[in-house]
Specification:
Elements: E1 25-41, E2 47-66, E3 69-78, E4 81-87, E5 93-114, E6 117-132, E7 141-158, E8 165-174, E9 177-183, E10 187-193, E11 197-211, E12 214-228, E13 234-238, E14 241-246, E15 250-263
Antiparallel strand pairs: 1-2, 1-15, 2-3, 2-4, 3-5, 4-5, 5-6, 6-7, 7-8, 7-9, 8-11, 9-10, 11-12, 12-15, 13-14
């Protein structure tokens, strides 16, 4: 079920959850090491391909007190190379590599609702550029994805005692995105609407050092699981002549990682 847009003040979680020690105005720089798995499925549910590998994710965020809550704006960026094992568009079994350029732009608003608990609401704009390498006689394939995620979540904070830290759980939903596909000499550029998507994301952080009332260094955890439905079939052409139909398969994306955040 899609969340009404009027309930969404801003945008989704990018950097770790809000710091265990809140600050009126602060910057946060993050560096994560994450493992990502991308699996695409045929219409009968069997696996069409799998990509997997590690990546460094860098981010920066600014948080400020606004009204009764906190507003955060953030960006993160990664350029992973994943190992591709699966099939070509023609059904041939192949092994190759895929290069991604991933960027997320976000804002998020958190609001106290109960002692120790805060509500989270926002939007996130995701840009994913994908380049599947050519191998043997099989041409490479390029794809661009543009997705807007709507996010609702809860955050729990413990700001004192030995168990100091915070945990956030977000539900993410996208009604549809846009995708562009092309292959040099093989597929003319074609754009179409992607399928709807939803997923969950867990973030946590624990302080390692503190200066005065501000926690400066934190260790972070990031877990994410997204499911994107199959798109509708669209006609594709080669040199202006229609050759057939293609679709973006149903896809599952998973990430798991740990990192460090520095706050000032």
């Amino acid at each position: 079920m899609r969340t009404p847009a009027r309930l969404l003040a801003c945008c989704a979680i990018l950097s770790p959850a809000a710091s265990a020690i809140a600050a009126a105005n602060r910057w946060t720089a993050t560096a994560d090491l994450r493992h990502e798995t991308v699996v695409e499925y045929r219409t009968d549910g069997s696996r069409f391909l799998q990509e997997r590998g590690n990546q460094a994710v860098l981010g920066i965020a600014y948080q400020s007190s606004v009204g009764p809550g906190d507003l955060e704006v953030a960006i993160e960026h990664a350029r992973p190379r994943l190992h591709y094992q699966g099939h070509s568009q023609n059904g041939l079994a192949i092994r190759t590599q895929t290069d991604y350029v991933n960027t997320r732009l976000a804002t998020i608003y958190t609001l106290p609702i109960f002692p120790g608990w805060r509500g989270r609401v926002g939007l996130e704009q995701e840009f994913r550029d994908r380049r599947i390498h050519a191998t043997g006689n099989i041409a490479g394939l390029s794809e661009n994805y543009r997705t807007r995620w709507e996010v609702l979540g809860l955050q729990w904070q413990n700001v004192s005692g030995s168990g100091k830290g915070s945990f956030s759980l977000d539900w993410m939903s996208s009604a549809a995105g846009r995708q562009k596909v092309w292959s040099s000499g093989g597929i003319d550029p074609v754009s179409f609407e992607t399928g709807s998507a939803e997923g969950v994301r867990l973030s946590a952080e624990w302080p390692l050092s503190q200066s005065g009332d501000v926690t400066q260094l934190l260790v972070t955890l990031h877990v994410e699981s997204l499911v994107i439905k199959r798109s509708h079939d669209v006609a594709w052409q080669r040199n202006g002549v229609t050759q057939g139909y293609l679709a973006q398969p149903a896809t599952r994306r998973k990430q798991f990682g740990v990192g460090l955040s520095y706050v000032w």
